[in-house]
Amino acid sequence: MSVIVSSSPLTPQSQAQRTPSPSPLPSPPSSQSTAATSATYAAVDVNPEVLAHEPARPMSPVAAASPQKKKPRVDEFEAEELIGVPPTCVPAVYVAPAAETHAEETDGATRMDEDIPAPLPAHTITWSVSTEKGYKNVFGGNRLSIHPEMEDVHWPTWEADGRFMNEHLKQDGTRLFVLADGHGGVEAPRFFVAGATRAVSSLLEARDWNFAELEQQDAFRKQVHTAFQILDASYSSKKVEEYRKWIDAGGGSEGASAAAVGEKKPVDDGCTLIVNVLMKGWIVNINVGDSRTVVGLKHDHVGWEPIFSSADHNMTHPAKIHHIQRSGGQFIHPYGTLKCVSVPNTDEPPAQPYTQLAGMRIYRPPTPQIRAVGVSHRRTLNLSATMGDLLFKVEPAVLSCLPDVEFVPVDPTQNYVVVAATDGVWDHMRVQNTPLQNQIVVQRVGLFLDCELGSPSSGNGGVQSATTLGSPSMSDAATSHLSEEAPSFHDEIMVSATHGAVFKSSSTTAAAQSEPSPPPASSLLDKDREDAETERIRAHHCRRLALAARILVERERTRHRLWNDAGMESLALLHQQQQASQPQPRSVTGAAAATGSGNGQDMLGALDSLPDLFYSGQFRYDDATAFIIHLQQGTRAESR
Q: How many CB atoms lie within 10 A of CB 204?
């Protein structure tokens, strides 16, 4: 497992502080290929395997063209910046993925609020990301990785964030967060994370968007749809060429071995894709697949509550399943039995979800076009919209790559949290009701953001606390490695807070430097104390955010049941205090939570008061990645 934390304000000043890089375009980070739970990293102290970059390849839209359909275009869109392959000869059996016959209605207008004040001053953005590689529990309590490489890919990473924002995105205060969950391989998520980052950033730079106008929302949505179709068609064309080379080498003949062919059979893979854009008082969510984004708002009296959630493109989505059924897709049980589904014979999809398809998978019978391409028809999927997946994109395309594009207004006087996570988080939760899942996760993350972190506990009955970062106090190899890395993690968080945040003390310092005479020594001492206090607060905030992200991906309770960090104790205490109407057995006193002194059983009791998010002891856990983005409200004093 790895954790990366960054803190920066949504202001133009933050971009000026970053050092330019000779390469303005990012390359996708490679997935993690280490053990299921690896060390914790933050800021510039990162895992080189996580951030190993793959060289970008130019793409020509010719490869995305279709012999039957007009080539999709994007107004003022730099198509040559997309990652892809040189122009290739696309066989006539393949056509660029067609759009769904039904244009899905969005409720973006219902979320509009034209009375929202101007976003001044801007929010301060702090983000954290945590990952855990998928594994299965085997005999003897050991873990066996389910993939050779981590198939979740995210952007940004700490090393690349500043370079990309400083060189490529010229919109003041605009931030992009991209997350892809691969299936079948890691090539597709790497391709689409890099391509979507370039495509969306190019669209944002093309004009001065004002999402308060519905016409501009519709225009941006259409251009995103076209850009995603270009990306998907480019990747599918690349795969078609790989299969063509494999067939020409003899790979399609009966009984031909890989050694005799000399060409490795291509992998037909795909991924989900999420892009969250933060700009000018708006959160723009772009979503394909079953990874989910939830936006939470902190209310004065009721605490944190979800105000937006992206729709999961799973086997119950009405519009997507309706499109699949009309395009020739079939639905099977996990053990292979075809399941007949009664779909209304109308041009419009039903309003209710297909609950009878929960747990089913999509199957596509072989066709002459599929046989000509050479891709196997034996693959099945449990998603109703993906990027990639050539089998389901051969014409007539069964799956759609059109994303949902939603706009969420942001009030500068409120605090928000954005949680974007793959299905490795949502599918393993105890609660499987989507609205309740969103509420539980937002409230749990809100607890971390609201609690006060104290120093690590020491009197814990013989169990030594690992670090001030809340690392587990268990004695296995993985957690011991976490303990060794934790001090540098804490230091790097403070460095990132120093370089990425603009505090009240910054404006005070600028004012002091503009005076003709130097300030007295007493004022300098006060300023230093204020700066030190500000840094301490920022570092504690980063710690809370890192802990919140870690809790979402470490899904086995045994991994953190004995966590003995003072921050975890304070979190449990805060949870107990918020449950005033319920009895509070074995409560930890405020002094014990703040100083870490107290009986070990009391600490375990406090942690037990927090309900588990996940079922522990399952046989298999998929790859899990969680982004947490905290938007802290600004004040009028900071904007002066």
A: 19
Domain containing 455 equals 434-501+529-617
Beta bridge partners, 620, equal 136
| The two structure tokens encoding residue 62 | 């010719």
Query: How many secondary structure helices (H) and strands (E) does the chain include?
Result: 17, 20
Residues 533 and 565 in one domain: yes
pLDDT band for position 6 (cuts 50, 70, 90): low
- Alpha carbon distance 248, 242 (integer Å): 10
Q: How many domains does the chain have?
A: 2
Residue pLDDT, tens place only, 82-141: 333 333 333 333 333 333 333 333 333 333 334 444 444 478 888 999 999 999 988 877
Residues 41, 138: one domain?
Answer: yes
Average pLDDT across the chain, whole number: 67
Per-residue HEC secondary structure of 614-639 comes to ECCCCCEECCEEEEEEEEECCCHHHH
The letter for the amino acid at 337 is: T
| Whole-angstrom distance, CA of residue 281 vs CA of residue 123 | 9
Distances (CA, A) of 330 to 285, 381, 445: 30, 11, 39
- Residue 536: which residues within 8 A CB-CB, separation 6 or more? none
> pLDDT tens across 33-43, in order?
333 333 233 33
Beta partners for residue 53, in sequence order:
29
Q: Does residue 403 have a cis bond before it (omega within 30 degrees)? A: no
* Residue 250 near residue 267 (C-beta atoms within 8 A): no
- Claim to verify: residue 418 and residue 567 sit in the same structural domain: no
Contact criterion met (CB below 8 Å) for 130 and 1: yes
| β-pairing verdict for 282-288 and 338-339 | unpaired
435-472 burial code (b ≥16 CB/10 A, e <16): eebbbbbbbbbbbbbbbebbebbeebeeeebbbbbbbb
Q: pTM for the complete prediction?
A: 0.68
